[in-house]
Amino acid sequence: MTFAEKVKYVRGKLLLSQEALAKEIGISYPTLNRWENGHNPTWVLECKFYNYCESKSIKFEEKK
Question: Whole-angstrom Cα distance, residue 17 to residue 44?
Fold first, then answer.
């Protein structure tokens, strides 16, 4: 699963708009929009995203 797919998955699971998810994570809407369009985040923002997912008990399957 790509990072963009993970962001879309989280939005779908929580029924949030891009704007709402960005606000929840503490980033700007344009940043989240770039993520969904295939741009990878900086390490710090990626950690912020995964910490948010962990706080919501959202897990991603690891590829084998």
Answer: 22
